[in-house]
Amino acid sequence: MPSTELPQPRFVQCHRAEPAALRLELVAGLQAGPARIAPKYFYDPLGSRLFDAITELPEYYPTRTEAALLAVHGPAIAASVPRGATLVDLGAGNCEKAAGLFGLLQPARYVAVDISADHLRHALLSLQRRFPDLDMLGVGLDFSAQLDLPPEVGPGPRLLFYPGSSIGNFTPEQALTFLRQVRAAAQGGGLLIGVDLLKPLEVLVPAYDDALGVTAAFNLNVLLHLNRLLGSDFAVQDWSHQACFNEADSRMEMHLQARRELTVRWPGGERRFARGERIHTENSYKYRLGDFQALLAAAGFAQVQAWTDERGWFAMVWAQAQSA
Question: Which of 24, 77, 90, 318 has its CA 20 to 30 Å from the CA of residue 162?
Answer without folding.
Answer: 24
